[in-house]
Amino acid sequence: MTYHVALLGSVNVGGNSRVAMADLRDLARDLGLNEPQTLLQSGNLVFQTKEPAGAALEKRLEAAAAQRLGLTIGFFVRSAEEWAEIIARNPFAQEAADDPSHLLVQFLKTAPAASAVTALQAAITGPERVRASGAEAYVVYPDGIGRSKLTGPKIEAKLGPATGRNWNTILKLGALAGL
Fold it and tell me: Is the distance from CB of 7 to CB of 169 less than 8 angstroms?
């Protein structure tokens, strides 16, 4: 059994796609996923399974959420080993130490093309910085996320479906996954 972290995109944000975390844990149990735990109310799920992380597991979770919870949402699943690599690859170590709530990791379905990352970087009009590694994009918001013009939809327009978590949440989920 391996720990996995599943992130739901756009859950319990702005009143859209509401789901109780108890329902999410029950869904995971019903799918045969072991020891499901949630963190916060924003769609963070940690569980154990023998299944590999990846598109097949994501699709199974998405289909079950649609059928049982009436939610059409994306799941982004990483194994604990992949999660450790995401933490280790952080290109903004100083920002993570100094201001972790303003460092986000955007989880993507696939690794973006270098040209897509370059196009996103070129579209930035503020002080934000973006670096991509694998199927994740690391984004620093020095002036805060709420006022930034580098929004989730703008990121998704360049890099594809995504969901973001701040560095504090990344570390807490890592701890739940045994890191």
Answer: no
| Domains annotated on the chain, with CATH | 2-82 (3.30.70.1280), 89-176 (3.30.70)
Residue-wise pLDDT for 29-54, tens only, equals: 999 999 999 998 778 999 999 999 99
61: closest CA among 42, 74, 47?
74
d(CA 109, CA 162): 7
According to DSSP, residue 42 is labeled S
- Within 10 Å of residue 86's Cβ, how many Cβ atoms? 21
Alpha-carbon span 82 to 75, nearest angstrom: 15
pLDDT of residue 16: 61
Q: CA-to-CA distance for 132 and 102, rounded, in angstroms? A: 16
